[in-house]
C-alpha cells in the first residue's frame, strides 16, 4: 500500500512537510514516496495528507494508479469544459 507522485509534480515541498510517516523526499526530478514507509495516512487522517495539500491535479496516484485529485477536482472546472478550452473549441456563455 503506497501512493505515487507523478511527473506532474511541481516540487512545491507541500507534501513533504505534511507527511506524518516521513515517507516523502525530494527525488532527482520530482518528489518520491517511499512505498515501505507510506501508510496512506490510514489510522491517522481521513485522507492522505499529501493529496489533501497538493495544489496539482493528477500529481498523486492511489495504490491502484487512480489520481486522488482528478482533473477538475481542484479547479472546479469540469473536465469536458477544460478539454474544449484547451482545444480552442470552448465558447463561454453570453451573459
Automatic annotation (TrEMBL):
Q: Where are the transmembrane segments?
A: none
Does the keyword Zinc belong to this entry? Answer: no
Taxonomy, superkingdom: Bacteria
Q: State the Pfam families in the record.
A: Fer4
Q: Which UniProt keywords apply?
A: Iron, Iron-sulfur, Metal-binding
Q: Which GO terms describe its molecular function?
A: iron-sulfur cluster binding; metal ion binding
Xref: InterPro entries: 4Fe4S_Fe-S-bd, 4Fe4S_Fe_S_CS
Q: Which PROSITE patterns match?
A: 4FE4S_FER_1 (PS00198), 4FE4S_FER_2 (PS51379)
Presence of keyword DNA repair: no
Residue ranges of the 4Fe-4S ferredoxin-type domain?
1-29
Task: Give the signal peptide as a residue range, or say none if absent.
Answer: none
Protein name in the entry: Putative Ferredoxin-like protein in nif region
Amino acid at each position: 500500500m503506497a501512493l505515487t507522485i507523478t511527473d506532474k509534480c511541481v516540487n512545491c515541498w507541500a507534501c513533504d512537510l505534511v507527511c506524518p510517516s516521513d515517507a516523502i523526499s525530494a527525488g532527482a526530478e520530482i518528489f518520491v514516496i517511499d512505498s515501505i514507509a507510506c501508510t496512506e495516512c490510514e489510522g491517522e487522517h481521513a485522507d492522505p495528507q499529501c493529496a489533501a495539500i497538493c495544489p496539482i491535479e493528477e500529481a498523486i496516484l492511489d495504490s491502484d494508479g487512480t489520481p486522488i485529485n482528478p482533473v477538475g477536482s481542484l479547479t472546479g472546472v469540469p473536465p469536458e469544459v477544460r478539454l474544449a478550452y484547451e482545444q480552442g473549441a470552448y465558447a463561454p456563455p453570453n451573459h
